[in-house]
Every structure is written in structure tokens, then in C-alpha cells.
């Protein structure tokens, strides 16, 4: 990370630290969903585990990240509309530093949100048999997932005409875990729904994280999860970079 990127990152992080309610707001919905499903629906859901919060947590973490990345689009849109972005690109700094500062801010802020969700899950009875290597692998997958969605968020952040348009793209991503193995095993779903659920990225990522946390057989799931994350990130980065260059010259 260049010194200029660090300065820009510091600017964005100071804004977040002055308004920590951003992180709290992002965490509220996933935590509320976790409380609802564990304490209201958990007894009626056959997940094949004794502790439903253990089964549920990986999907909740992805939901929290999908919610958090909308703020990347929000911050980018604000910088463009205020004229701050145009001012930055006239300064003697690499233009890519401007985008990377927003992306790294998303990575840090979403990591904080994930920690908050983890702490609540611990209070609800979450326990893991994972060792240090498994935890590092989980952190790596969550980091890649955050980067992939953040680069997706950059595109509407640069192209949207309104603030609502900049953030609305995240809504389908937030609810994608519902049609996956995040809440119930895919075997319980109707055939058409099951085919979609088993072949979308959230299921592979959730299954890989779940296996790492609870000592299951990871198998090919982790490679499929990594392929989804890296593939989405590369494609989103390519289009985000093109949009940035065409929009701001």
C-alpha cells in the first residue's frame, strides 16, 4: 500500500470512527436474523446439528458482509457528487489509490462488523473446534468474499444517478443466502430451488466455512468457494476500473 493510499484510507476510516453507528447499523440486521432463526425457528428446522447457531453463523457472516459493502457505493457516490473525487484525481497521486482506499476501508469496516457478529454468536452458544490454520482459512475466505463484493459495489458507486440507486444493488446479495445452504440443508428444498441453491456461490462458501469451523471434510468445497470469490473479484475489478477511467478520464 502506497503512502497516498494510506492517507486516503485514514480519511475514510476517521469518518467511520466518528460515526461508529455505521458498523452497528450494518450488524443489526444479520444479528436480528440470527436471533430470530435460532430462538424462534431453530427448534423447527432440521439442520442435522445439535447447536443451530453453529450451523447458521457462516451464512449470517456473509449476509453481514453483503450489507456492509453497500456503504462503499454510498461513500464513492458521495465523493463524486461533492466534487471531491474530481479534486483527488487532479492531485499528484495514482488514480488507483483513490479506489483502493475505498476498497480497503470496506475490508477493515466489514472485518469489524464480522467481529461484532462473532461476539454475539459466542453469547448465543457458538463454539468451534477449529485450530489456528482453520481460523486463518476462514478469515481468508471472508476477506476474499469482501473484496469480491466490494469491487462489485464500486461499479454502482461510480455510475448511479441517485444515492438510492448506488446502494440498492446490495439487496439481492443480502437475501441470496436464503436460497442456499446457509439456513437449511439444500436436500430439503424442491428440486428446481435445490439446483439453483447448490450452484450459486453462497452455498459453496458457506459449506467451506462450516467445514473449517467444525472439523468437517472440506473436500472440493473450499476450492469451489475460492474460485467463486477470485472469479467475481477479477471480473468486478476489470469493469470497475474501466468505469472509473471512462467516467473520470
Structural overview:
Belongs to the ABC-2 integral membrane protein family. This protein has 249 residues and is an all-alpha fold. It has one domain (3-248). It has helices spanning 3-18, 21-41, 52-68, 70-81, 84-89, 95-123, 132-159, 163-168, 170-175, 191-198, 201-213, 221-248. It is elongated and about 60 Å long.
Question: What would you say about this model in short?
Answer:
By secondary structure, this protein is an all-alpha fold.
Q: Any descriptors?
A:
mainly alpha; transmembrane helix; elongated; 249 residues; 0% strand; ABC-type transporter activity; Transport permease protein; 76% helix
Tell me about the largest β-sheet. Answer: none
Mean pLDDT comes to 85
* General form: elongated
Could you tell me the number of beta strands? 0
**Low-pLDDT residue intervals, each spanning 5 or more residues:** none
> Could you give the distance between the termini?
23 Å
Compile the SSE list and pairings.
Layout: H1 3-18, H2 21-41, H3 52-68, H4 70-81, H5 84-89, H6 95-123, H7 132-159, H8 163-168, H9 170-175, H10 191-198, H11 201-213, H12 221-248
Helix pairs in contact: 1-6, 2-3, 2-6, 3-6, 3-7, 3-11, 4-6, 4-7, 6-7, 7-11, 7-12, 11-12
Main location: membrane
Domain ABC transmembrane type-2: 21-247
Subcellular location: Cell membrane; Membrane
Amino acid at each position: 500500500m502506497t503512502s497516498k493510499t494510506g492517507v486516503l484510507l485514514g480519511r475514510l476510516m476517521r469518518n467511520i470512527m466518528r460515526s461508529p453507528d455505521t458498523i452497528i447499523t450494518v450488524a443489526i440486521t444479520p444479528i436480528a436474523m440470527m436471533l430470530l432463526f435460532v430462538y424462534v425457528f431453530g427448534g423447527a428446522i432440521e439442520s442435522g446439528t445439535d447447536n443451530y447457531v453453529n450451523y447458521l453463523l457462516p451464512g449470517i457472516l456473509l449476509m453481514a458482509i453483503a450489507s456492509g459493502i453497500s456503504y462503499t457505493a454510498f461513500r464513492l457516490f458521495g465523493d463524486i457528487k461533492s466534487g471531491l473525487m474530481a479534486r483527488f484525481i487532479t492531485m499528484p497521486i495514482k488514480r488507483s489509490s483513490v479506489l483502493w482506499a475505498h476498497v480497503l476501508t470496506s475490508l477493515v469496516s466489514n472485518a469489524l462488523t464480522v467481529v461484532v457478529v462473532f461476539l454475539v454468536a459466542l453469547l448465543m452458544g457458538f463454539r468451534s473446534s477449529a485450530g489456528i490454520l482453520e481460523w486463518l482459512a476462514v478469515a481468508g475466505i471472508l476477506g476474499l468474499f469482501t473484496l469480491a463484493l466490494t469491487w462489485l459495489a464500486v461499479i454502482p458507486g461510480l455510475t448511479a444517478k441517485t444515492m438510492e440507486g448506488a446502494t440498492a444493488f446490495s439487496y439481492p446479495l443480502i437475501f441470496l443466502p436464503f436460497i442456499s445452504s446457509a439456513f437449511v440443508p439444500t436436500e430439503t428444498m424442491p428440486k428446481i430451488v435445490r439446483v439453483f441453491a447448490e450452484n450459486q456461490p453462497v452455498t459453496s462458501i458457506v459449506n467451506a466455512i462450516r467445514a473449517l469451523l467444525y472439523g468437517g471434510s472440506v473436500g472440493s468445497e473450499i476450492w469451489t468457494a475460492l474460485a467463486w470469490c477470485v472469479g467475481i473479484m477479477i471480473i468486478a475489478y476489470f469493469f470497475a476500473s474501466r468505469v472509473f477511467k471512462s467516467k473520470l478520464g
